[in-house]
Design brief:
Number of strands of chain A: 22
Number of helices of chain A: 25
Largest sheet of chain A: 6 strands, parallel
Oligomer: homodimer
Radius of gyration of chain A: 30 Å
Shape of chain A: elongated
Strand order of the largest sheet of chain A: 12-9-13-14-16-15
C-alpha cells in the first residue's frame, strides 16, 4: 500500500466531493454512535421507533462523541489526500461509540469481529453489544481496533501519543485532548513533550485541544479563559495554536467542513515544512509544532433542548441526554427525530450496509486509522538483540566478595542492550538515571533534549534514547505509548515515588489483562521497572523517601500480568533483568540497590537461583544432609538478605550447634500458592524449602504483612516471623535504619532465640548481649553520624581478607547524586 | 502585634540600612546552611578547620538553598515594612538547611527547641543535628517551624499554598516553585488555581518560580525555553510575570538586593491594588495576579569550580558540592574559604549569638514567617459547629426499608454542616460532587469559579465553598493546605481514581505521624475522604473504573493515623461521617454507594453499630440465645452486605434449620489485633463475634486478601472464606458484576454449603439449583441488558410490602451524571 508521509497539500482546498464525503462520514458515525447508546433493535429505523427498541439501561457518553467523529472524518480526508500514515489517540476515552462507529465504517471492525456484519443484523448486534453485559465497554478499550489508549482515567493522551511517535519517523499521531482532561496535572505538563521529540527521527504529534466547554457537571477552565490567555498558554508550551470554532451559530455544516479542512491542510503543510527542514538539517532549532484548538458545542447535533433545558452545548449532554426514551413518548419521539436528523436512509443501503458514498472518504488498508499496525504493537514488535548478560557478571570467587553497586553493574549490561538496539529500546527516568547509577548507557547514547543547550551540558542531544523529565507521569505515559506500539523499554525511578503512577500502572495492567483475552491483540513487550534508591538507603532523604508499598499495590492486579523481583546482588539482578527484557505482556517490578554491597552468587549460581526464584543458599546453611534444620533464616531483597546473613554469621559464632537453613527469595510470586499465581510454588516445594514445623525468621524488603498475605495458606505459616519496613525511620545511617525497623542482624538473632525453644541459658545471655550491642550501635550512630565500623565493615566469613574493609563505609559517603 | 495587610509601599526604595540587613541575613543564613551540611564542630571557625570538624557522612542539599535564603531575607524586609502577615512555602523542600537557618535567626527555632541556644554551643548542636541520626531530616519537615510543606515529593507547592490562602483574606502565601518541580504534572496544572481564588475573601498566593537551571543531573525545561515562551506560559496561566535575573555576572550583591527589593515592592503594590479593588468591587473580573520569575545560579555563592569542574550554576551544586572535605586537604580548605566568604565574624558575636545587625531585618512575633500560626494550624483550629446528624436520618421502620441513596442522604447532612460553618469548611471534588450525589450542599453555597461565567451556569460564583477542578492532585493538595492551616474539609472522588493521589496520601500520612510526635505541633482536623461511584457499581464505565485498592494502600501506613469505614447504609454513613468530622490528625477513608439501596438500621441502631464498629445484626440471625451458630455470614460494604443478606434470605427459605449469625463490619480496622491498631478488637471480642471454629462466609467490598492479612493471627482464621473483588468485570449490570467476582447471593450460599459439612443431600441439590439460577441470571443480563427482576427487586423479608418493588430497578437507570 502506498504511504507518502509528510507530503504537501495536493489541492488548494477540499473538493465538493470531499466535503460531501466528510459530512456523510460524520452523519453516519454520529448516527451509529447514538444507535449504540440507545437502540436494542430497529437499527435503521425501518419501523416506527417503539419503547421496546430502546435499551432498558442507557449507559454511555454522548457529549464528546460528535467532535471525535468530526475529527475522524477530516483526518480521513487528509490521510487519503496525502497518504499520510496516521494514528488516532483520543483523550476523552468515554467517546467509545464514536471510535467503534468509525472502525465499523472503515471495515476494520467487521474484519476483526465478523459477527458484526455489514447488514441490518450486524448493525443490530453492533448497537446491542455496546455497554451491554457480555458486550463491549462504553469506553475506547483494548477491544476497539486502532486504539492504544483507554481514557477511562484522564490525563495521558499526549504522553501516550508522544510515546507512540518516538522512533516512528513517518507516523502522525493525532491526539485529541479533552478540555476536562486538560485540567489534570499529567496532561498539563505533557504539552512540554515537544522538548523531547526529534523532528528528524521521530514521528509527529498533532494535539487537538477539543474545547466543548464542559466536564460532567462543570464548565472547563480552558474553555473559560480568554482566547488571548489560551493562545499564550499554547505558545508558552512551545506550540503554534490554530484556533477553530464552529457550531455556535447557524453556519452550514458544509461551510464548517470547508473551514476545518483548510485548517487541517495548513497544519499539515506546516508539519511537512518542519519535517522537510529536519531532513536536511537534523540540528535545526526546536520548531513551534502546530496544534489545533477546536471549540465546538458539547453533544454537538443532539437535540438543543430536552425537557426545556439547554442540552446541546451544555454539560447535560455529557452522558445520555435522553434518559427516559424507554419511559416517555416525548423522549422516545425526540430520540427518533434525533436519529433521523442524520438521514440514515441516505447513508445505508437496503440491506443495511453503508452506501459507497458514505465510506468513500476512507483510506485503504493500513492507512485506515482503525487498522494502524502501530495500534496493535505486537504485530510490529521485533525481539531485542540482547547481549549475553553473563558477560557483564561480576567475579564472585567467594560469597561475600565485593562490594559491587548492583544497578551500576546492570548499567553496563543495559549499555550493551542500548548499543545493540538503536531504534526500538528506550530508557525513561524522572531525572534519576544517574542517581540510580545506570548512566553507563550514556556512553552509547544521549539524553534527548530539544530545548536550549549550554556549553557544559553532558550527554544531551536532539537524538537520544534516554528520556528524562522530572515527571513520573510523563515517563510512565511515554513508556506505555512506546510499548503499546511494539517497542521495548524500562522506567527507572526511586522506589518511593513510583507511587506517583500507581493509577497509571492500574490502567496498564487492566489493559494487558483484557488484551491477553483478545486473540487478535498480539503480545507486546513487558513494562519493566527498575526501582532503586530504595527504602533502606535513604540516608540523604529520610522518611518522605521511604515507601516499599508499590509491591503491595502491584500484587492486587491479575496474577497473570504482574511479576515482582528482589535480587539480592549484582549477578542475580543481571539474570533477572535479562529475563524481564525477554518477557511479553507483563509488568515486571525489579527492586535493587545502588549502594556498594557484597555479592553472594557467581553468575552460574545466580542463573540457577533466578530460575528457581527461591532457594537454599548452601554456603550460609549448616544442616547436614538428610537432616532437618532447627531454624530457617530467609532474606528477600538486598539489604534484608545482607542483614540475615550477618545474623547467620553471629549464630555460627555464638550458637554453633544450631542447624540453620538459609533461604533467599528473588521472585516474590514464588511464595504464593500455585493456584493463585503462575509462578507460585506447590505446597510440597514450599514445605521442602521452609519446613512445616520449624521457625522461619525472615527479613523482607517491604511491609511485612504482604508476606503473610502471600503465605497464609501454607502449612508452616504459623511459624513464620517476618521483619520488614514498619514506617519507622528518618534520615539516618543504614544500620540505624535497619534497627529502627527491627530487621537488623542483632534483632534477627534475637528473633531466632525467641522462637527456638531448645536454645537454653547460653542463648538468654546472648540475647542480652545483642540487646546491648544494638544500644551501642545506636549510640555510636547518634554520636558520630556513621555506623559502628564493626557493623559497616562486616564481611561474610568466606570473604574475609579478600575485601577492602573500608570500601563499603567510604563508598556510602560518596558524592554520587541521590 | 500590629498587622496591616495589603498596605502600599512605605518608601520609594530599599534604604541602605535595609539593603545591609538583607545582605547580612542572606550571608548569615547561607553560612548557617553550609555549616549544617558540613560541620560537626568549630561552628564559628574560631579555630582552623580540620578534618575532624567535618561530618563523616555529608548528606544534604545545597543547590536550592541560597536562593531560598535570598527570598526569605527580602520577604523579611517587605513584611517589616508593610506589617504584612506572610507564610512561606518552598517547593524545593530539600532546601531544609535554609529554612532552619532563617528560623534560627528569627528566634523561633530556639523558642521551639531551647537546646539549640543562641551561642556557640547551640550553633554546634544546630549544625550537628542536621541530617544526622537522632537529629532532624535534611528536608523541610514537620520538625521545621513555620512549615506545612515537606517537599520531599515534588509538585504540590502551589496547591498547598492556595489551600492555605483560602478563607485567610489577610494572608500572603509566598510560594517558591523549583524549576525541577515545575516539570511535574501536579505543579503544571496548579498554576490554574488562580481561577478558584476570590480576591475579596481569600488570601493571596505569590508564586516565585525559582529558575536555578538544573535538577539532580539535568537542566530544567523552564530554564531552557525562551523568555518569550516563559512569559507567554505564565500569562497563559493567568499570571503577570515579573522576571528577575541575578548572579550571572559580577553585579554587586548590594545592587542585586536593590533590584529585587524593587521588584518585590512593585509586586506587593500590584497585589495591594487588587485587594483594594476587591474590597469595593467583590465581583471584579479575575485579575492577573503577579508572580516572580527569579533566575539565579544553582548553588549561588558556593565555589565556582570544584575539582576543575563548574559547580556554582551547575547541577553539580545540587547536593553536597564538596564531597571530600573530610578526606582531602584541598576540599577542606575550599570549604573553609567558602564558609569564611560569608564573613561569620561580622555576623555573630563573641559568644556565638547573631549580632543585632544580623537580625535587624526580622519582623517580630507572629509576623516572623517561621512563627506564623497558620503553619501550626492546630493553634487556630476551631471546632466545627455540627448539626445533629440524627436529624438527617432516614426512617427505617423495618430492616430492608427504602431504597435510599446513601451519599445523597449524607449530602443533606453536609448541607447542614456547610450552612453552620461559613468560613472554615470546604468540599473539594474533581468534578464529581454531583455525580457522587452530595450536591445538596449547593443549596447553601456555590462552587467557587473565577473564570468566565455564562448565563446558564448553575451554582458557580466568585465565592463558594465547593472547589471543583478535574484534578485529583489539586483537590488533595488544596485540602491538605486547608487542613494544615487549621480548617476542615473533605475530598469526594470516585473510588478507583483516588489512586491518582496515592503518593500524596503517603506524604500526608507521614507528616501526621511525625507531627503527632512533636508536642508543639497541635492536632489538626483529619483528612476525610468520601469515595463513591465504587467498584461494584460501574455500570456506565466498566473495568477502568473498578479499583478498591486504596484501602490496601492506606492500611500500610502507621495504624495511629489511618481509619477505614465501609458503612452499609444511609444511617451508618451519617453516623460515620459525623465521627470523622470530629476527629483530629487522622486520615479517614469512607466508602459508600450512591445508588438506591435498602437501609438496614434505624438511626439509634446505626449509632450503636458504628460505636462498636462491627457487630451482630440480630434481625438477620436466627441463633437461639445461648447457642452457637452453625455458620457466620458477614458483610463489609454496602453491596456485599446486601448480597450477604440476600444469601441469608435464601438460607432461611431453603435451609431453615441452619443457625446463621449475621455480622456486619463498618470500621475495617476492628478486624486487626488490638496491638496492631488502636481500633483493633481483642481476640476475645473477635472470637465472640466470629467464633473460633465455625465457618465464616464473608462478602467484602475490596480485594479479599486484605481481610486475610488483617485476621491471619485470629484463632478462627482458617475457617474464614472471603469473597471480594478479583479484577473481574466490565461494563455490566450490578448483579452480573457481583457474579463475575463470586460475591453474589447464590455463590455465597454455595460457599455455605461447601463449608458446613453437616448439611446433607438437600443442600447438594440446592447447590445445583443455585448454580442453575446463576446461569439463568447471567443469560438474562446478556439477553436483556438488565438484571432478572427477582434479583434486582429483591427485598429483605421484613420489608416486603413496604417497598415499591420497581424503585431500585428504575433508579438504577436514572440519568444522574456518573
Amino acid at each position: 500500500m502506498t504511504q507518502n508521509p509528510w507530503s504537501y497539500r495536493t489541492t488548494d482546498a477540499a473538493t465538493d466531493a470531499e466535503v460531501d464525503g466528510i459530512d456523510r462520514w460524520w452523519r453516519a458515525t454520529n448516527y451509529l454512535s447514538v444507535g449504540q447508546i440507545y437502540l436494542l433493535d430497529n437499527p435503521l429505523l425501518r419501523e416506527t421507533l417503539t419503547r421496546d427498541h430502546v435499551k432498558p439501561r442507557l449507559v454511555g457518553h454522548w457529549g464528546t462523541t460528535p467532535g471525535l467523529n468530526f475529527i475522524y472524518a477530516h483526518l480521513n480526508r487528509m490521510i487519503k489526500a496525502r497518504q499520510q500514515p496516521t494514528m488516532y489517540i483520543i483523550g476523552p476515552g468515554h467517546g467509545g461509540p464514536g471510535l467503534v462507529a468509525s472502525s465499523f465504517l472503515d471495515g476494520t471492525y467487521t474484519e476483526t469481529y465478523p459477527d458484526i456484519s455489514n447488514d441490518e443484523a450486524g448493525l443490530k448486534r453492533l448497537f446491542k453489544q455496546f455497554s451491554f453485559p457480555g458486550g463491549i465497554p462504553s469506553h475506547v478499550a483494548p477491544e476497539t481496533p486502532g486504539s492504544i489508549h483507554e481514557g477511562g482515567e484522564l490525563g495521558y493522551a499526549l504522553s501516550h501519543a508522544y510515546g507512540a511517535a518516538f522512533d516512528n519517523p513517518d507516523l502522525l499521531v493525532a491526539a485529541v485532548v479533552g478540555d476536562g482532561e486538560a485540567e489534570t496535572g499529567p496532561l498539563a505538563t505533557s504539552w512540554h513533550s515537544n522538548k523531547f521529540i526529534n523532528p528528524a527521527t521521530d514521528g509527529v504529534v498533532l494535539p487537538i485541544l477539543h474545547l466543548n466547554g464542559y466536564k460532567i457537571a462543570n464548565p472547563t477552565v480552558l474553555a473559560r479563559i480568554s482566547e488571548q490567555e489560551l493562545v499564550d498558554l499554547m505558545k508558552g508550551y512551545g506550540h503554534k495554536p490554530h484556533v477553530f470554532e464552529a457550531g455556535m451559530d447557524d453556519e452550514s455544516h458544509e461551510s464548517i467542513h470547508r473551514r476545518f479542512a483548510a485548517v487541517l491542510d495548513e497544519v499539515m503543510d506546516e508539519i511537512a515544512a518542519i519535517k522537510a527542514e529536519a531532513k536536511v538539517n537534523p540540528n535545526m532549532e526546536r520548531p513551534m509544532w502546530p496544534m489545533i484548538v477546536m471549540r465546538t458545542p458539547k453533544g454537538w447535533t443532539c437535540p438543543p433542548k430536552i425537557d426545556g433545558k439547554i442540552t446541546e452545548g451544555s454539560w447535560r449532554a455529557h452522558q445520555v441526554p435522553l434518559s427516559s426514551a424507554r419511559d416517555t413518548d416525548e423522549h422516545l419521539h425526540t430520540l427518533e427525530d434525533w436519529l433521523k436528523s442524520y438521514g440514515p436512509e441516505e447513508l445505508f443501503d437496503e440491506a443495511g450496509a453503508p452506501l459507497p458514498a458514505t465510506t468513500a472518504l476512507a483510506p485503504e488498508g493500513e492507512l485506515r486509522m482503525s487498522a494502524r499496525p502501530e495500534a496493535n504493537g505486537g504485530l510490529l514488535m521485533k525481539d531485542l538483540r540482547l547481549p549475553d548478560f553473563r558477560d557483564y557478571a561480576v567475579d564472585v570467587p567467594v560469597p561475600g566478595y565485593g562490594p559491587h553497586e548492583a544497578t551500576k553493574v546492570l548499567g553496563g549490561y543495559l549499555k550493551g542492550v542500548m548499543a545493540a538496539n538503536t531504534d526500538n529500546f528506550r530508557i525513561f527516568a524522572p531525572d534519576e538515571l544517574a542517581s540510580n547509577r545506570i548512566q553507563a548507557v550514556l556512553d552509547v547514547t544521549n539524553k534527548v533534549w530539544n530545548a536550549r543547550s549550554e556549553f557544559d551540558d553532558e550527554h544531551m542531544a536532539h537524538e537520544g534514547r534516554v528520556v528524562e523529565m522530572l515527571s513520573e507521569h510523563q515517563c510512565q505515559g511515554w513508556l506505555e505509548g512506546y510499548l503499546l506500539t511494539g517497542r521495548h523499554g524500562l522506567l527507572t525511578s526511586y522506589e518511593a515515588f513510583i507511587h506517583i503512577i500507581d493509577s497509571m500502572f492500574n490502567q496498564h495492567a487492566k489493559w494487558l489483562k483484557v488484551s491477553r483475552e483478545l486473540p487478535w491483540r498480539r503480545p507486546i513487550p513487558s513494562l519493566n521497572y527498575l526501582l532503586s534508591s530504595h527504602v533502606w538507603r535513604q540516608d540523604h532523604n529520610g522518611f518522605s523517601h521511604q515507601d516499599p508499598g508499590f509491591i503491595d499495590h502491584v500484587v492486587n492486579k491479575k496474577a497473570e500480568v504482574v511479576r515482582v523481583y528482589l535480587p539480592a546482588d549484582s549477578n542475580t539482578l543481571l539474570a533477572t533483568y535479562d529475563h524481564c527484557l525477554r518477557s511479553r505482556d507483563y509488568v515486571n517490578v525489579v527492586i535493587a540497590g545502588k549502594q556498594p554491597q557484597a555479592s553472594w552468587l557467581t553468575m552460574d549460581q545466580a542463573v540457577d537461583h533466578c530460575t528457581r526464584g527461591a532457594g537454599i543458599w548452601e554456603f550460609a546453611s549448616n544442616v547436614p544432609d538428610g537432616e532437618e534444620p532447627d531454624v530457617v533464616i530467609a532474606g528477600i531483597g538486598d539489604v534484608p538478605t545482607m542483614e540475615a546473613l550477618a545474623a547467620v554469621d553471629i549464630i555460627r559464632e555464638e550458637l554453633p550447634d544450631l542447624k540453620v537453613r538459609f533461604v533467599n527469595v528473588v521472585d516474590l510470586m514464588r511464595l504464593q500458592p500455585e493456584k493463585e499465581h503462575p509462578h507460585g510454588m506447590s505446597d510440597r516445594e514450599f514445605d521442602q524449602l521452609f519446613t512445616t514445623d520449624k521457625p522461619i525468621i525472615m527479613a523482607y524488603h517491604g511491609y511485612p504483612w504482604l508476606i503473610h498475605r502471600l503465605t497464609y495458606r501454607r502449612t508452616g505459616h504459623s511459624n513464620l516471623h517476618v521483619r520488614g519496613y514498619k514506617e519507622e525511620g528518618t534520615t539516618t545511617t543504614p544500620f540505624d535504619m535497619a534497627m529502627l525497623n527491627d530487621i537488623d542482624r542483632y534483632h534477627l538473632v534475637m528473633d531466632v532465640i525467641d522462637h527456638v525453644p531448645s536454645l537454653g541459658t547460653k542463648a538468654a545471655s546472648l540475647r542480652q548481649r545483642l540487646f546491648d550491642q544494638r544500644l551501642a550501635a545506636r549510640r555510636y550512630a547518634r554520636e558520630f553520624g556513621e555506623d559502628l565500623p564493626e557493623v559497616a565493615n562486616w564481611v561474610w566469613p568466606d570473604a574475609r581478607g579478600t575485601v577492602d574493609a573500608d570500601v563499603s563505609a567510604t563508598a556510602a559517603t560518596g558524592g554520587d547524586n541521590e
